[in-house]
Amino acid sequence: MNVSTGGRRLRSRVTTATLVLAIALIPGPSYATPSEPDPQGDKSIEDIRAELDGLYREAEVATEAYNAADEKATKQEKRLTSLKKGLARAESRVDDLHDLAGAAARTQYRGGDLAATGIQLLLGDHPDQALDEASQARQALRSLVNVSETQKTARAQLSRQTDTAAKELRELNSSRADKAEAKQKIEVKIAEAEQIESGLEKEQTRKLAQLEKEKAKEARSKWTGTGAGGGGTSTGSGSGGSGTKASGAAGKAVDFAMAQIGKPYVWGAVGPSSYDCSGLTSAAWAAAGHPIPRTSQAQWQGLTRVGLASAQPGDLIIYYSDATHVGMYIGGGKIVHAPRPGRTVTTAPAASMSILGVVRPGV
């Protein structure tokens, strides 16, 4: 090997190695591991609570979107099933009419041409038979015209029903896509919140619980300041303690909701073993014999609104400007509700969240 050539190769390898080492030592951007929870140690308890509340609120908004899409899809599935049955009947009718038209045409053919029948009347040996055949031919012709018109109408109806069924199927697929998107959002937000909670130190968890108690105490005094009525807490058999009593359907609804205390919150659930917020209120009023809309937004839009100061046990208090949470007022400044994932159906101060308004089912 040529010494000078070997020296050049050695210098080249050294230069390349030096360059690679230099690149490796250049500081680059750092990326957090996706599954690694954000450090919470440098955050205040108030900040942690606000972050958790925000994540669970986003999950609740997505839950209401999921519930609405689910309800819409259920209705569309029923309508599509009904349309398909109607479509099958229409197709069968068109087939029957087609057969009938064929039979009428054959009858006319057998009856012969009306002009030929006239010649038979003049020249034939059997004029009675010719008249009979002429009558059959006229009848067949009328039948053929009637069948043809009816067949045309039936085909138009079949076409309309086919188009309607196709539209319903497109809308159903769209609703299912909305459900899938909402479900993904819910699961992501809940996972983020649970990740934060699992990363809290024991002392942080204790302080967080203490902060929630203090906020609940504040909320109780807030309700008193609103001038809202409604009397004492409603208990069994629709009794309202020392204040306004929940009677009739409202009493039954309150009794049902109170009997669910301790059952877990599960988004999209309507019982009997778990509930989300609007799942609890809709199930309670259904049990009282007065079915109401499924979602809190639909409850806000579709039920009779009453003033906050007039709230009575059994009324529904709708929360947040987008109407994405609901609880049932039980009197004494309290609601029973399904709060959020990780919690169970419980009572809480009615003013513990931002109140949008009050609605009264069964009116």
What's the arrangement of secondary structure elements?
Elements: H1 3-25, H2 45-111, H3 114-123, H4 127-198, H5 202-226, H6 248-259, H7 277-287, H8 296-302, E1 304-306, E2 316-319, E3 325-331, E4 334-337, E5 346-349, E6 355-360
Antiparallel strand pairs: 1-6, 2-3, 2-6, 3-4, 4-5
Query: What is the global morphology?
Result: elongated
Element order: H for helix, E for strand: HHHHHHHHEEEEEE
Helices, by number, come to: 8
Q: Would you report the number of β strands?
A: 6
Strand order of the largest sheet: 1-6-2-3-4-5
Helix content: 55-70%
Q: What about the largest sheet?
A: 6 strands, antiparallel
Distance between the termini: 103 Å
Question: In terms of structural class, how would the helical and strand content be classed?
Answer: alpha+beta
Report low-confidence residues grouped into runs of 5 or more.
Answer: 1-37, 117-123, 233-243
What is the gyration radius calculated from CA atoms? 38 Å
**What is the mean predicted local confidence, pLDDT?**
77
- Relative strand content: 5-15%
